[in-house]
């Protein structure tokens, strides 16, 4: 009862390949062997790798981003068996804290190469780029994006319970249909992929099965949450997760020091390795009781608060940059909103790539404003002015500053 | 200097048809005659009709909603000539206050008939419905949605400067192309429509031209703002608007006592007639100076603030209710998020229509969470728990209450 | 039910002496005749004079402040009989709105002459001074204190129910003892004063009695609240007031457009005439049920919010300006804290009197920090940086601006 | 540059007596030897003992509180020489983080025996008592005060630079005068005390001198800050401290996991040992530049935020519990305000001692409301309702709960 430290349910080894660590896995599948037990109402610490499993370095080149192996990502910590959890229950996950490792006080934000991952604005910004962020306590700053500093809204990008076989089959069905119908040049979804599948401590046969059937970790999914990348799922949040298999088989990973709404550059948060402290409580029969199909959460009281009057807010509409009118398309509108911010901040000396990186990871607020006034969806993006050490209000004269450069690839 | 009241730049007559009032108009067109001059740096009051021009009654039937004439809407107050404003300038509009008329302290939220207007969830909720809201100072409550009360985040749904002829032509081109390509059953955009066009004090010939060419007021548009329905454009906000014609020709209307992000039921805000107090300042050459293509705004410090920990937040993904997977579609995801809230709140005794109305008008926060994790867009919707007089937290036992009914149409 | 306007329970006449208006009074006494009835659960509007009853003018001289007649103040609106209220009940007062009169959009802040009223810093600043504030919607600004503008945290300075004869006797006893023991030069309390007593519609005999016995309105008092000058008792607040006489006999007045914690210059809020909208609810047996000896309140969600990081905060201790050490005296500490702000803001070109006025009326936060570390009490004063149109952060270079002058008296 | 961990400038040993550790000291004196150098603009971690130097145990008896040795407290970490700092400069201290030790996740709140320390309400509550708080990430809860849980507003109780000989002499003069004039039974200040003086690495002679002359650490003082116990001096704050000696000689200690305004029970915060991360920057000539006599601070954006409408607020006035009227005495008023909260919360089953402990350490807001309405000062105390797991709003029925007990002494 507090006399000594909180139990660490999983330790990771930052100096060993992720695929050699039995407490990690990178596919969603009901059969991934449990890596440990957690009692109902227990508080534990769980260590996590960064989402690339250590592929990205603290240096000034984006070659590592360019060449990142996207089959070797999202090594999640888990799955954990939560005692008493049964299908139909809800697992209440209270995020008591999230911290980087003390001896690794830095993280990164990346823009993937259009040919290898891409991102929300890759039509305009196809090159890989990177920013390294140094953590100073609750704050971070970057030598690659000067004159900016902010407190992290620290959170896990991914958490969820394992799918049942039925849920997994449904995922594979519907995403398979999308892939089958795809006529574009770009990937629209990721099918199961045996290559680089890591199934924790699974024996070879089981591992093959999981590689063949297991759902990829990239998308969040309505039935369990997963890779939601919700910036407000931060310290103090209570998350309510549907349970689909006995023991819940909870996994977590992809810690973010900070992220903006949308995580637009895809590797857009400030990605880091670290430790998450969680309290687990099983709500028996919770899915029916709460009429729950997708996760619900209740944020804590401790987010960075800038005050409503400290956000400079940009509007965007579903008319794309070629003048084409789209029908109530909030995705197109949000892309335009992001471009409006880039045009505005460019005046201070930042390169477009620097701003693209910044919008991905700073605590910007992306709202759906109006979604019914045909044909235009309208979205807004609020930039907290206090993250800059100069005054970005429209009424203040613009002075171009020396903004240096973010990291680019060598060729 | 404050010795007497602020000048009222336009009075409206609530007992006279909108189309007989020369200070109102319902099309965007550069040639609508100005209804008055406002000095640079002047503060004025402007009276506005509700967006239906008085078609909706304070009663317990939704027949008026069912039969609303959607060609007779959005009678805007204006346009006003702002002294010294020229194309390329930016008009800074400071919203000093917005108030309902003292002797008309009520407003309405409507769900349109799927055959006459529709809305975001009309596939599931095709019937017309209505809630009347009574204003008690800064608060509102409704006999049609009991056990709810909140402070208004009061704002204008529409404000903007007139388009130039070129901008207008561009609107008609691109929206015309969308209409031409439409293969669905539903309207995807509204073309110019001479019927019920009101061009203020225009002579007959000019009025006909404006009816033929004038842009409809339904959508917001990137070049000037217009019907953005941004709930945070409230008291204390500074809005920066592009100027496209000499004198700016500023118009405003469609006042909302409150609105949720998305304004999902289309007639979704708490619509009201009232008075807006604005200060106008011209920023010479502002469009180039601010690199501005679409409006920017800076909210004031006075929004209702519930604290980060008082929002119960729901997640939704771009998988529709038929299990179909959509590709990074934030609009689909937001629809699912809304449905999750309906399923949750239904447990307390509300009908789905009541919740649909409530989500449209209460200050709910709709965020774009993740928009890059193929194929799922993830959006969130935060419901402020303090608007209910009972406890909606998941950990509290549910008691069904007598929630009465919203207003429906007679047949 | 909202179809028409809210009933106005009392109208005041701004062009008639306060003492001729039967709905006003300026003494607390159980026998002041009721000026009207209000039903349980009713919402009404009540008009109020400013606290000087119109003695202060919108001009650039402080002669009116210098010569103010302090026996002719605090003409309260009421008392109102609230149906069903009995001694021992609690009257729940919901402040739905507070507004200035539409045709009188201005208010004033004064520093009284040390010889006529004085104030918190009158040892250092003995001269009378004045600032006129113009209201522009929810904002105010002053020609007497340039480069400052803020949203009002609008509230009534005074509200409360009438004392019973017993409560009144207790007030007179204990304040009389303080006066009797006074050995200083200054008034320490105000005894009953027949001169200029106004007892509403009371007949001459009763009026004399009330003049002789009635408690003065200057101090707030624990048994009923009264002149608390609590800036956060603003729009949206629910106040719980003890009831001491049948019908409660509720009175209200002394409206403030804004005030800082402490209201340090005594006439320190932005004083105004206006209208307050209140809902009244009687809680039977509430005093015992709530174990209530003094009023409790629950603020609404709509205060101006600057964010925790937007307050520049000054520390003060209970060592006075002569180097004398006081024992845990929070009053002395707060005076020092105010002086620290004056020294800091003076660097920008403001006169001490301008800052003294500003600290009295702007929404500054005065906290009791530490009150146990003998011998020093420590208090803090947080100044919201966003009320200035220049940057007051310590890291920004100081530029002296032309700050004009506040109004002073003619000699 | 972030590649590796932040340097720890001082380690403490929790298993060794404080007085044997040369990096600690418990007197303010210019001659305490520096325990290390810190560069201008450097970020370091500094470890700190709890303020009793480990005297209090994690158990269920308050015997340790009863018998605490108050000469053996406030072992501060330091002093540190900050490179380039000279008298007249300002030391900018950015508090980047404060954390408990990972293997000691608990703290304590105490009420001292009236005969040994006492506190703000010791007239009514003379007995020693204690509550142990367990930390679960950013939250804490106590087996001694059930049904309460909140996020810490973590901060150092003490930080400051060393006094010069002149400043120290002034402290001793003015506090000595207070002591000399004392006619009460209680200590009004603490004179220099050779007993248990710890002067870091000082040789015997110097140590004796420091014991003879050195200022006690209990009070905060205007010239340097010191033991201010300001709850908002939390993570993210920038504090501006006057420098009086070459190298500044900065010290810090007395870490608090949380504290309420006033820290009323004297050992009132949640006291803990832990680590603080600070960035130091010297502002040359800062005292003149900022016209600074006492510290100023600028809080960060990350405090727990409950929203203005989530504080139940109590009023108190300067009339004491014996009915005696005091003249504008904010200290008396705040004591009454605290008593009003105790009376209210007692209804739920808490003992008065439990509430007294809770008010000392939970993030309650203590405001100076009105300080000019003779003879009554009015203060308010806002209790954040969300720290309770039951509903404390006045409109909710009271149910008494089993609240157990706080720890008391054995006899």
Any chance you could write out the topology, listing elements then pairs?
Four copies of one chain form a homotetramer.
Chain A: E1 7-10, E2 24-25, E3 36-38, E4 43-48, H1 63-66, E5 76-82, E6 90-100, E7 106-111, E8 129-136, E9 139-141, E10 149-151, E11 155-161, H2 165-181, H3 204-213, E12 220-221, E13 225-227, E14 238-242, E15 250-256, E16 266-271, E17 274-283, H4 286-289, E18 296-298, E19 311-317, H5 330-345, H6 352-361, E20 365-370, E21 378-384, E22 407-408
Parallel strand pairs in A: 1-4, 3-5
Antiparallel strand pairs in A: 2-5, 4-17, 5-15, 6-14, 6-17, 7-8, 7-16, 8-9, 8-22, 9-10, 11-13, 11-15, 12-13, 14-18, 19-21, 20-21
Helix pairs in contact in A: 5-6
Keywords:
FmdA_AmdA (chains A, B, C, D), alpha+beta, 6-stranded mixed sheet, 7-stranded mixed sheet, homotetramer, 2 domains, Jelly Rolls, Acetamidase/Formamidase (chains A, B, C, D), FormamaseFmdA (chains A, B, C, D), 411 residues, Endonuclease I-creI, 6 helices
